[in-house]
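hey so i finally got around to running the thing on that chain from the lab meeting. sorry it took forever, my laptop kept dying and i had to restart like 3 times. anyway pasting the input first so we r on the same page abt which one it is
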Amino acid sequence: MPTRKNTRETILHTIKELHSSTVEDLAEAAGVSPVTVRHHLNGLLADGSIVSTTVKRSIGRPHLTYSLSEAGEELFPKNYFRLSTLLLQELRDRFSAEVVTEIFNGVANRIVDENSDRFSGLSFEDRLDFLVKLLEEEGFMASWEKNGDGYQLKEYGCPWLSIGETHAEVCSFDKELIKNVLKTNFKQSSCMLNGDSCCQFTIAAPTSA
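ok and heres what got predicted. didnt touch it at all, straight out
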């Protein structure tokens, strides 16, 4: 009999392969009962790995089909590092380092524009909370704390760290997010690319904070 982990993996892989699966599809693929499949589906729905869609039939009652969510797609391995490195190398071959940096800044600005309604009107410390959340959504691990008259923002994890070793232009991305969300001055005092344990930023509190 399949183990719980193997059953869950089989369900996810079957949904990935079929794109849209019914309980019956999944029960047949995993070799378990529909009741067991529904148990796993409830867990996958709860953690956001899949989504359900109601499909109407010409005859009979509507039924549910299941497909992967964006988070579910991320559970499957992807060679992002190689693709990103090749894309950056192509950009470097075609453009100057300054232009590549401007491109990354443009991407960061686009993300800020798309999320402006989520932080406009917030207090400064609430903006810091939002910034940490936004960084986490983009693959960073970050936190902040108040320090005297200003603030310290620390990034403990960076999705660009390996790529940044050969393409330092990517380091402009998070700085652009910080600048455009907080709208205040800041200075970087440590960087993981230099062997430090984290990227640390000293942020000046605005006069209205």
